[in-house]
Give the backbone structure.
Amino acid sequence: MKPCVGCVEAKGRRAPVPRRSTRAAVPFGKVHIDLTGPSSDALDVSRYLIMFVDSALRWQRGYGMRAKSDTLKFVQRSLADMNGMGTPGCFRMDNGGEFTGTAFTTFCDTAGIRREYTSPDTPKQNEVVESAIWRAMKGCHATRRHILAMGHTDLPSIPKVGVDGHRLWLASALWASACFNRSATKANVDWVSPFEAFFGRKPPLTAVPFFQEGRMRVKRATKADVQSVRCFYLHGDNNHSTSPAVVLRADTGSLALTNNVVWVNRRAGAPAPVPGIGGGS
């Protein structure tokens, strides 16, 4: 039977994506990479989110980028951050110019990393990282909606966060990504979390909510000045232990890294005990 030319022209056929597994057998055997953006400027002026997901353990890590041209720099940074895992056997990504350019391909060839590209216009072939980005961005939207519903947080009074806190999109996405690393997943044997699979130990039982209010210790100009300022928790830091936190100062709207902070429980009207801060994303 001959196909209807009119139907072929009107619909266009998308080839089926095979359901066979392409999951790596060992950690760092394959790393899925993708990015999303451009978005509005984040607090650090980033406009893109680049995500790395380990195929075997489903461990994910994201970074904010200012431009697509920074892709290679953040690939190199991710490898430096995960230096203890060795060199990845393979990168799986789409056909974007940031992944097919001479600089990127030369780096991979020099490092001995195989490049595996998806078929054009078939993002489902890289669904591991596509799903990670989708869930992180959904978590980002949910946390920002929750902030707006919090009675004790007056966003317009905080410099630089933007209308309705839209410049918090990257920080909230990184916080959500870290939460998924600590959550049980059916993708791993016995529903082990990516955190436990990666580090060999269970994640901390406590987690600091996004935009949790706190008081951060600061240097004072005189002894008559108070020694703390109001701040809000954003996420853990990649290159430190599990204690330092990236916070937003309420007085300046600037980012700060600290572990000298006491979280405030507004409902009880008294400072809450400091829980362990989940490091990294």
